[in-house]
Amino acid sequence: MIVTGGGSGIGRCAAHELASLGAHVAIVGRNPEKLETVRIEIEEDGGSVSTHVSDIRDEETVAATIATIIKDHGRIDGLVNNAGGQYRAAIKDITTKGFEAVVRSNLTGGFIVMREVYNQWMAEHGGSIVNMIADIWHGWPHFSHSAAARGGMFTLTESAATEFAASGVRVNSVAPGSIASSGLDTYDAKDTEFIQKGVSPHIPLQRFGTESEVSSAIVFLLSPGASFITGSCVRVDGGAPNARRGWWELQPAENNTPFNGFHRASEPAILAAAHQGEQR
Ligand SMILES: CCCCCCCCC/C=C/C(=O)SCCNC(=O)CCNC(=O)[C@H](O)C(C)(C)COP(=O)(O)OP(=O)(O)OC[C@H]1O[C@@H](n2cnc3c(N)ncnc32)[C@H](O)[C@@H]1OP(=O)(O)O
Ligand SMILES: NC(=O)C1=CN([C@@H]2O[C@H](COP(=O)(O)OP(=O)(O)OC[C@H]3O[C@@H](n4cnc5c(N)ncnc54)[C@H](OP(=O)(O)O)[C@@H]3O)[C@@H](O)[C@H]2O)C=CC1
Q1: Same domain assignment for residues 214 and 128
Q2: What do you get for the CA distance between the two ends of the chain, in Å?
Q3: How far is the CA of 59 from the centre of ligand 1 (A)?
Q4: Is residue 123 within 6 Å of ligand 1 at its C-beta?
């Protein structure tokens, strides 16, 4: 099994889970120290793991990494195409270089890894691929570069599922919402305050998800239990995209914080503004 971004967060958790189920896990990332830490953890637990330093955006290194994994371990049954990330910025402030860095990290890089795994192994032997996306439905303000890339990965997954089906390769995506992973450490203090106070009221299950709640969806999709599932997307988001009309009317007043920017439709100020709009 290959897990990109296996040196931290959701990828680390999935690597542990897969190793505990008996798989050899090849973890891929840019930072060798992070990979080494996870290697030691998994080996201490009795698992089998190898580390591979590679930037998923670098075609040559990725091709060589996949070849090494096949040479050393004989097969690739599954790919967790998980590496990625982004920074928070408004569209007006995103430079072309920044936009391209995020698209390359979350779409092109995942494409390169998936293509190499397919061409070098799965086209002949079958397998299962899980592509990580995000809760991008209806857009993702201040993360628009990532939403654009993940939207691409969503449809790339659907296309690959049909192209690869005859080779016995299933391809699905997992779309995490707000997950309390190590990835959140990459945001600054102001964002963290927003994350803590402003996000949970938007989530019907009223909390962040955990790394293991995403990992279990990944492992299910990789497993024979999902043998008739391909081209699908499993949302792991506590119902966040469903918190639309009706949701706010069900909420206690204290959930209407200045952070979340939502207000009950019945609030006097909102009614007055709506009335003014009618008069115009
Ligand atoms: C409120 C929260 C609710 C949050 C609500 C809670 C839900 C969160 C949901 C999602 C959570 C996650 O995904 S958690 C996962 C988080 N993990 C990660 O993001 C890790 C991986 N990310 C990255 O490596 C970086 O973000 C990424 C930009 C993609 C790639 O980095 P690189 O090192 O390749 O790129 P760089 O060379 O640094 O940058 C290239 C250009 O990108 C731009 N750039 C890069 N970082 C920048 C930054 N912080 N601010 C501005 N611009 C930046 C600049 O233009 C850079 O050019 P110069 O100006 O010339 O330098
Ligand atoms: N946490 C959340 O709420 C959500 C997370 N996601 C996505 O889930 C995935 C896992 O995130 P999470 O575990 O939370 O965060 P992390 O930041 O902990 O994980 C991201 C991993 O990807 C690796 N990575 C990033 N860019 C590259 C690259 N170019 N080449 C190789 N490896 C790379 C990083 O390792 P290294 O630095 O060593 O390269 C890191 O281990 C990411 O794609 C993330 O965007 C999506 C929605 C929500």
Answers
A1: yes
A2: 61
A3: 20
A4: no
Interval between CA 153 and ligand 2 midpoint (Å): 15
Q: Which of 181, 196, 236 to mutate to test the pocket of ligand 2 (most atoms within 8 A of CB)?
A: 181
Q: Are residues 265 and 231 in the same domain?
A: no
Residue 47, domain extent: 2-241
Cα–Cα distance list, 98 to 93, 145, 156 (Å)? 10, 8, 22
Residues 99, 6 share a domain: yes
Question: For residue range 133-178, what is the model confidence (pLDDT) as tens digits?
Answer: 999 999 999 999 999 999 999 999 999 999 999 999 999 999 999 9
Cut 0.90: pTM above it? yes
| ipTM score over 0.95, yes or no | yes
**CATH number of 6's domain:** 3.40.50.720
Nearest-ligand number for the alpha carbon of 134: 2
Cα diameter, the chain: 73
d(CA 54, CA 86): 18
Domains identified in the chain, total number? 2
Q: Kindly identify the ligand whose nearest atom is closest to the C-alpha of 99.
A: 1
